[in-house]
Amino acid sequence: MPPGGGGEVFFSCPVRKLLKPIQLTDPGKIKRIRGMAYSVRVSPQIANRIVESSRSILNKFIPDIYIYTDHMKGINSGKSPGFGLSLVAETTNGTFLSAELASNPQGQGTAVLPEDLGRNCAKLLLEEIYRGGCVDSTNQSLVLLLMTLGQQDVSKVLLGPLSPYTIEFLRHLKSFFQIMFKIETKPCGEELKGGEKVLMTCVGVGFSNLSKTIK
């Protein structure tokens, strides 16, 4: 946890020569919610309090909810105390919408109660579900970048309302790759509930991975 940190991340990724075009236009319906409440260098009860408060809101929406708790202490828990919650909603078509919140770093801002954090994170997830689309607002820019770098074929993705970050990112894509997206708004009817949806369409630049294994 910030500010002391003290953890490490192992990142491994398969090498891809080309990115395939995608057609993600049907997000499906929410079928289950999974999550992880984590706490380090604080009372183990805090993670349980987060789970109870978030479930008090999410249980009204769907019954299939499971939130795991992960408490670490001692040398494995890093250098700073803190806690947080990560929630993921999975749909019938295999798309994921996520929300995450963490406590303020030690000595910065006001202290956050675990109950408030759990409720606020649950509301953030419900906000993402209301916005809808095949990708949540945090990852909109990532999917648009991968569509841009794909093969010279048509890619389509259905998103919820575009976030200010995504709008600025689209301007960057135009500057760097000269790629313009076709943007169609889809009004909400019986099929698409929640916020207004946006269908994003583009033709990839045909980017190819030139990396070679260094002996």
TrEMBL record:
GO biological process: endonucleolytic cleavage of tricistronic rRNA transcript (SSU-rRNA, 5.8S rRNA, LSU-rRNA)
Localisation per UniProt entry: Nucleus, Nucleolus
Keyword entries, A-Z: Nucleus, Ribosome biogenesis
MF annotations from Gene Ontology: RNA endonuclease activity
RNA 3'-terminal phosphate cyclase insert domain residues: 25-129
Domain annotation RNA 3'-terminal phosphate cyclase: ranges: 2-183
A Pfam family this chain is assigned to: RTC_insert
Cellular component, GO annotation: nucleolus
Keyword set includes Chloroplast: no
Family: Belongs to the RNA 3'-terminal cyclase family. Type 2 subfamily.
Protein name: RNA terminal phosphate cyclase like 1
Organismal lineage: Eukaryota, Metazoa, Chordata, Craniata, Vertebrata
